[in-house]
Design a protein that fits this description.
By secondary structure, this protein is α/β, with parallel strands linked by helices. The chain contains 12 helices and 10 strands. The chain has a single domain, classed as TIM Barrel. The strands form 2 sheets. It has an 8-stranded parallel β-barrel with strand order 1-2-3-4-5-6-7-10, surrounded by 5 helices. A two-stranded antiparallel ribbon has the order 8-9. The radius of gyration is 18 Å and the shape is globular. The two termini are 23 Å apart. About 5% of the residues have low confidence.
Amino acid sequence: MERTQGNAKRTVYAFLQERSNYMRISFITANYVAREVGYHMTEGWMQGDKAANDHYRPIDTYAARLEELLALISDQGYDSVDFWTAHLHWSWATPDHIETASMLLAKYGLTPLCYGGYFGDTIEEFTKACATASAAGMRILAGSTAMLKKDRAAVVAVLHQYDCKLAIENHPGEKTPADILQQIGDGAGGRIGTALDTGWWGTQGYDSVAAIHELYPHILTMHLKDVLAAGAHDTCRFGKGVVPIEACVRLLAEKGYTGPLAVEHEPDAYDPTPDCVAMRDMVTGWLA
């Protein structure tokens, strides 16, 4: 897609966002989990995670490699992005990495919204994750940390220190919204909520619309994802699977939701770019 087309789409989307309570549609860079293994990810998620970390970690090549990625996202018409940790990992991100990422985001007119991934097993690691996210302009950490169960008070203190929020993402361990609500607890004054992943609710065979109703006061960000069938986690273009994505988006608009709407699709055997373009258009149309 030509850069001019991407710019034109962002202009249209910016106007539509003004009419949709300022919900921002973002591209999760984890959509490209299989990119660095040539879309031949045969060993599961961690194979792609390792390959991406290895690819982006060296500072001498970081600018060129990240620019290639952000240009690809920009050309699809997105104006917001959620960074997956493998593209700016708290364990290796230096001030130079963060400065480079911020400069390139500005160059391509991309607003960073959320930081997605796993945020450590110790309070030191969680602090690094919050510091990295905050320095890069992302105040919502969408994922999980073992520290929430180990030392909740320390997690809340770090979130306050860096003015961040922890959005717990439902994954295989959470079968119902009650499992998420138990982790959210009192919400720590709004510092702890959920990143509602419609695809994982679909995998669990749980109605995503019902999950939105049950979790709505605590939703900090949405991961819009479809899956082919319950019982597995094979992501697909919206409308090809079992998750009622359109109904989810329309319900959020009715409720007055104003947080991020992240488009997520992470196939392990093919490039998701055409689907991500189509899904961006679908969400924009539903909001309009």
